[in-house]
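Entry 14. Structure prediction run on the chain below.
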Amino acid sequence: MTAKEAQFRTEQWPLSRITPYAFNPRLNDDAVGAVAESIRTFGFRQPIVVDTEGVIVCGHTRYKAAKHLGLETVPVHVAKDLTPEQIRAYRIADNKSSELAEWDLELLPIELGAIAADGIELSLLGFDTEELAKLLDPGVKQGLVDEDEVPAPPDEAVTQPGDLWLLGNHRLLCGDSSKPEELDRLIAGAPIHLVNTDPPYNVKVEPRSNNAIAAGLSSFQHATHHQKLDVERHPGKSKPTGKKVRAKDRPLANDFVTDEEFDRLLDAWFGNMARVLEPGRGFYCYGGYANLGNYPPFLRKHGLYFSQAIVWDKLHPVLTRKDFLGCFELCQPPDTKVVTSGGTSSIAALRNGDKVLAFSTAWPGMIGYRSGPEIQVGRRHYGGPLYGVNVGKRTTWCTDGHHFSVRLVPEAKRIWCVYLMRRGRWWRVGKSRILTTWGLGIKQRLEKERADEVWILATYPSNESATTAEQIASAKYGIPTTYWEQCQTSRRSPMEIARIYDSIDPMAMHRGALWALSDHGRRFEFPFVRNDETREKFGRRVSFRCNACNLLPEVMLVPIPAGGPKHDWEPIRHVDIQAYNGPVYSLNVEKYHHYVADGIVTHNCFYGWKEGAAHKFYGPNNVPDLWHVKKIPPQQMEHLTAKPAELAVRAMQYSSVAGENVLDLFGGSGSTLIAAEQTGRNAFLMELDTLYCDVIVDRFQRFTGKAAVLERTGESPIAMKPRESGMR
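Output returned:
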C-alpha cells in the first residue's frame, strides 16, 4: 500500500469503539434525522474521521445517526498523519468551510426536479418542506388581469369542431374527451404527469331564466315558470328579456343524459385519462355530491385509485359540494413490521408487487401464508402525531387517519361515553351508552338530533361517572348540553333552544370544541360517525372501520392472526400518542384491503394515483383535506361550473413540478390553463363547446398578452383586446 493509499484508507469499526469529542462546538441534533434517513436510503458513504484514540474528528452527526439506526459497525478513517494541533483546527475548518459555499439557484431547482422525476424522495436531501416548495415553485406568477377574470362567450364562435389551438406552451383542442384518437391528437405523445378535471355531473339542472325559455333551451313552460313571463307575450312586464344568451341561460353538454349513458361516458372518460396518465401520478376530479358514487367503479376498472374527498370550502354561506376526489392517506412509520408470504419485513423494505398476509372480512379469516395478494406501496414525509395501538404485547404505530377493522366488546351495553356533536355552527356535549338494543348509542343521537357529525371523547363504566364527566366537559370547554330535538313535551321548544345558542359566541364555541378534541386525542377531520353513515352497522358481531384517533381502549376488539387461517378478536388495551417527523409508508392490498402490521390486522389505505408506481407528492407536511378558497361571485361567472384558478394551482403544486404536463379533459372556462401558466406547467385542454374554446383563448390572451395561434391557419383569428386601465 502506497503512502497516498494509506492516507485515504477506510476501516469498519464497531460503533462502541468510537468516542465523541467532549468539547465539540457544533450543535447537530436537528440534523440527525435527515442524516439517518440519508444513510438508510443511500448507504454509509462518508466515513467518520477519528484520531488514533478513536475520538471523533469529523462526523459527530453521522455517529448519532448510526446510533439512531441501531448500526453495529460503521466505516471509519483514522487520521494518523495529523498532529493533535492539526486535528483541533480541522474540526473547526471542516464545519466552517461547508458554510462558505452557496447554491446556484438556477441550476438547483433543475436538479431537484430531475431527482423528483426519478422517484427519489426530496426530503432525503436535507431541505425542509418550505425550502423545497420555494425552490421547486418559487411563486405563482401574476398576469395582466385577475386570474379569475373570464370574458363572456361571443355570439358566434371562431373555433370549429376539431380545431387545435397553440397557446404559448399550452394546447387546446375542440373535441370529444371520450374518443382516444382526439386525446392522442391533443397531447401529441407528451407524457401526462397530472390530471385536473371537472367532468359533467349529470345532475339534470335546467336553466330557468326567461332568456333560456325564450331561446328554447329549457323545458320549463312559461305558464309554470317561477319568473315573470316573456315581455313579448306579456307586454306589461317592466324589464324585457335580453336577446343575448348568457352562461346561465345555456344547459351544459352531457348534463342531461340517462344514467346508462352517463355510465358509458364515465367509462370512456376515465379510461382515456388512465391510458395517458403516467404510473404513480395523481388526478384531481371535481364532482357534485349527488354523483360521487358513480365514479369509484370506473376508477377501479381503469387502475385509478380513489381516495377521500378534498372538501372545497367556498367561503360562502351555502356549502353545497365536496368537490375534490383524489388524494391519499398517510399510514405507518418505516420500522413497522409487515407479515409477507415469505416472512416478516419492515414496511420500508416492501416494493410494488410484493405479497402479504391479508385478512378477509367476508370469510372472515387470514389469507396468504403461501401466496398472498399483491400490494402497491406509497411513501412520503410526515410531521405530526403518531398513534400507538397496543393489543396485548403488540403495538403498532400509525397516523391519525389510519383505519382499523374493529368490533365492540360484549360488555359494550354497560359502558357509557361522553360525546361531542355538531350541527352547523352549533355544538353540544352529551352522554350515551356505547351500545343499546337498537345499535350504536351515538348513531341514534345523531339521527334523532339531525346532527352533522359526532365524536366520542371518552368512555366511562357507569351512567353516574359519565354524567359527571359530561358536566365537567360542558363547563371546561364552554359547550352546552342542550338537546336539539323536541321529542318530549318537557323539553325546550326550538325557539328556546335557538335563544340559548344565539347567546353564545359561535367562534368561542368552535374553539372550545377544537380544544376538547385535542385534549382527548381526537381530530376534527375524523368524526366517529357522520350523518351520511347512519345506515352502517356498528356492533359486537359486525366489524366496522375506525380511524386510529377514534379507537376506544377496552371497548373495541381488533383481529389478531392465530395460526393458519384462524384469527382471534382481542381488545385494544391502550392508545399512546407521540410526535413524529419522518417518512411514512402506505400500502394498498389487492381485493382484501387488510394486512398484518406488528402482529395486528390493520386496514390498508387508498391513493389518488395511476397504479403501477409509487405515488408522487410534492406538497408540504400534513396538507389538510379542507381547502378554503373563495368561490367566483355568481355575477362574474361566465360558465355554470367555473372554478377559481387557485384550486388548480394547489393541485399542481402538490402533485407536479414546474415543466411537467397537466391534462384537463373538460376545459370549461380555462382555469386549469391559467393555473398552469401561473405555475410553469404545460396545460393540455379538451373542450367540446366551440364558444367556450373561444372563451379560453380570449382569457389566455388577456391574461398573458400573448397571441394564441390556430393550427389550421397559422394565424390568430381572435383579436387581442387592447390593454385596459384596470389591467395590472
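The CA atoms of residues 16 and 290 lie 63 Å apart.
Filed with the rest of this week's runs.
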